[in-house]
Amino acid sequence: MSARDSLNAPISRRAMLDGSTVAAAAALAGCKKSDADGTAASTGGSSDAVLTYHIENPTGIEPYTLEDENAVAVAFNLFDALTYYDYKTGELTDLVAESHTHSDDDTVWTFKIRKGTKFHDGSEVTAKSFAYAWNRLCNPSAGEQPSNVSYHLAMVKGYEDVTAGTATELSGVTCPDDYTLQVELSQPYADFDYVCAAPVLSPVPEGAGAGDDYTAFAHSPIGNGPFKMKGEWEDGQYVETEAFADYANGEAPKVSGVRFNIYKDSNTAYKELDAGSLDCSLVPITATKQAKDSYGESEDGYTATPDHQFLGGAMLYTQFLAFNVNDPVMSDVRVRQALSLAINRQAICDAIYEGSAQPADDILPSSMEGYREGAWAYAAYDPDKAAKLLDEAGYAADANGKRDLSFKFMTNAANTQDEYQSMQADWQKLGIDVEIDKVEYAAMYQSYLDGTYSVGARAWYADYPIADNYLYPLFHTGNGDNVSHFADDKFEQLIDAARATADHDERVKAMQAANDYVSELVPYTPLNYRALARCTDRRVSSLTVTPQILPLLSEASISE
Q1: Beta bridge partners of 280
Q2: Among 39, 95, 138, 431, which is least packed by CB within 10 angstroms?
Q3: What is the reported pTM?
């Protein structure tokens, strides 16, 4: 999904992946998709086994609150959206939509809703279910403010009116009949059907999750996916689900349920996996080699099978630092450029990640279309140039090599500190006084939103596999995930023009132009690209996690 604040946190038309990743993705088993004939699949799980899956405490588990990958891992299995990006084929497919079309100028999109699909309470999913859910995301009255991820709908007509509270419904979203959803955009956008694959744009039963029902729905949402809630989300402990007997958008789950066990850190979770008490865990950096040796590596990097249980496939993910451009010190672009150039990314990857990460030289992941080697020049390692930039910015070193420059480096307290300390040491070599500030996730995220930080650890994985899903949410003014608080008129002109470009190849080039422009201003600095680094217990017969970090739990199977 959107913002990722954990340096240990794991990771969205055509040919989106590079050759090696395409080959691996093609081997992914059982990606969730609709039956070819559109009929409902058999009901119920085929096993009484409950699969246990490691997550950190999520920001939420329903569309309104999907702000981190843990939230999306749960919601992806509770909800189905209009479309789905199938990593097995490398193509976008219809899911709850039976089909979709668009006008010649890409401004009007029409989705035909598959008949017979149901919510977990037995009510039918219709076009109005999507209209209600999308209006709920944008309407301040739904949760006291528009959802932080409502920007996915920013190109829909009426978005600004609804988010401002001057209208209650998106004027561009209409339902000509129960099974037709028509969406009119404020500008051409040829990739809108990819946006519609994001779990945040899943349907919600009309009237649910509003008013007095907001808290109840947030803890036990009613979705339309292969699994339904079993009780309520126990904050900080677990989310319990069971197979949805009336699931109609694909095959019935092979397990009777999934329990998302919540851990504060990956070390504890991995110990539980080693002890046989957990079926799938994130592997901490320091245990990568041991996990590969003990459990065997997945043959395609994404699907775990017996004796091939370590998942090391490339993610659509970039780890980076966020600079608060409104901070008195970080407001100087030369300081941001210098801090970026001072980081020895290769040394960090070699010493800490044990081969599970590569230095990042673009905000876009290396497996995404539009990536170019060395696109972000200030992601290179050049401490001499960094020192000159600091001198120019007025922070010249004294006779002892010290500079009158200090800041706090905000990090996630749940994660190991080796990488943070390495960057701290790189900056200290330039005479900068840096304090590592360990903060719990909730407080960390609030600091990002409030702009009460200087430099922070951050990461992002794609909601859908296009460059726009990095450039627009991270850099466009007004988006909740633009935690650098970057605002630049020229960039917004470039990204808006790119989004309106109908030709695919030309649109990619336009996105690259926007990326080139923002790379010089360094509101963020890329750090590395990481692999999935997940491992399963030996009783798991098959479990697939996509490059987008989406666990395909409806296809998972267990041998008792």
Answers
A1: 53, 536
A2: 39
A3: 0.81
